[in-house]
Amino acid sequence: MPPPTPATTFTPPVGIKLGDGYQTLMVWADSTGTQVPVSFWIITVKPVGLDGGDPVDTTTMWNIEWHTKHPRFLANQTDATGTAAYDPQFYNNIIASFNKNGTITVRFPDGSTVAFYGYLQKFDPGELKEGEMPTAAITFIATNTDPVDGTEQAPVYVPPA
User: Fold this and answer.
1) Rounded distance, CA 41 to CA 38, Å?
2) pLDDT tens digits along 83-111
3) Domain annotation covers residue 35
4) Which residue among 12, 44, 49, 69 is least packed, with the fewest CB closer than 10 Å?
């Protein structure tokens, strides 16, 4: 096979990029699809990303000049994180739903959504100070596993209406 050929034509990306991160929201539902009754007033959101994993090293003693690699077959999702204001009276709801696989949905400013199976891994309140709104760091882990039947499930993206 010949060496790679550089591209000579560059075309602009298709679609419409988001112009502002406002108003991105996150909703958490249990395995029955019922929204978890926890009041998180979302301040910041980092949606799940995609991660191909570390490359597989395919270098052998027959290589002459370069290490060689191969992409992994399976993909992974990164954590969804955010900062939220919260109501302390919902601690019992958080405890009851903590580490339970369900559906997390992120709605982007354009109205599109990405939903994935996952669980709340961390609810980490910040320091409480006079003159500052109390907030907590939240982390959702993507499990890619249907909590009802245990099947592998990819995230689902729905474009804006």
Assistant:
1) 10
2) 999 998 888 888 888 899 999 999 999 99
3) yes
4) 12
